């Protein structure tokens, strides 16, 4: 479990040989956090290891606006379909302070007509924050959805320096080409 100004969140992990491997990140809000983790993983016990302590500290820093990065070596992307893995890897590469669109992510996964499927891949992202799916918006710059709610999504983007138009759309200059 980890705390933030957004509320409690949880990281579910397992040991894979001599390494810890992240299975899922539960965001606060909308029934998320620790209670969701315990329902989804009923045999889970609350414990940690040095690797997970480091990871949760980095996630907590991200949730306060710090510029952090994650590698994907210790996460369970193999639980995802090939297409979702491609979308999540492309989303992971979106730099802080910038946003991309579902259509661009679909094109990067060699399925240029699959913007909706790319959005679905992000909506079911098991690793939010580690794979920063808050950095994906609709083609017109609208926020779209987010597992932690749109207010959390906007707050995360604002902490990263993303600006918005008065009607709530991301400034076009911040969209990746």
Can you count the beta strands? 4
Q: Report the principal-axis shape.
A: globular
Which residue ranges are poorly predicted, with pLDDT under 50 across at least 5 consecutive positions? none
Distance between the termini: 37 Å
Secondary-structure-derived class: alpha+beta
The third-level CATH topology of the domain at 80-172 is: Arc Repressor Mutant, subunit A
- Helix and strand string, N-terminal first? EEHHHEHHEH
Number of helices: 6
CA-atom Rg in angstroms = 16 Å
Q: Walk across the major sheet and give the strand order.
A: 1-2
CATH architecture annotation name of the domain at 80-172: Orthogonal Bundle
Q: In percent, how much strand structure appears in the residues? A: 5-15%
Assembly of the depicted chains: single chain
Query: Approximately how much helix is present in the residues?
Result: 25-40%
The CATH homologous superfamily name of the domain at 80-172 equals: Winged helix-like DNA-binding domain superfamily/Winged helix DNA-binding domain
Largest sheet: 2 strands, antiparallel
What's the SSE blueprint?
Layout: E1 10-16, E2 19-26, H1 33-40, H2 50-62, H3 82-92, E3 100-101, H4 102-108, H5 115-123, E4 136-137, H6 150-159
Parallel strand pairs: 3-4
Antiparallel strand pairs: 1-2
Helix pairs in contact: 4-5
């Amino acid at each position: 479990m980890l705390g933030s100004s957004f509320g409690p969140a949880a990281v579910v992990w397992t040991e894979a040989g001599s390494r810890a491997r992240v299975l899922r990140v539960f965001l606060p809000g909308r029934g998320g956090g620790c209670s969701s983790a315990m329902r989804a993983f009923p045999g889970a016990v609350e414990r940690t290891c040095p690797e997970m302590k480091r990871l949760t500290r980095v996630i907590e820093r991200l949730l306060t606006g710090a510029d952090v990065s994650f590698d994907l070596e210790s996460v369970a992307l193999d639980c995802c379909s090939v297409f979702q893995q491609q979308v999540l890897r492309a989303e992971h590469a979106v730099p802080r302070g910038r946003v991309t669109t579902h259509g661009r992510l679909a094109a990067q996964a060699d399925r240029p007509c699959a913007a909706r499927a790319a959005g679905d891949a992000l909506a079911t992202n098991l690793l939010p924050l580690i794979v920063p799916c808050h950095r994906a918006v609709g083609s017109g710059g609208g926020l779209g959805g987010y597992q932690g709610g749109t207010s959390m999504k906007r707050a995360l983007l604002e902490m990263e320096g993303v600006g918005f138009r008065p009607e709530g759309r991301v400034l076009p200059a911040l969209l990746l080409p």
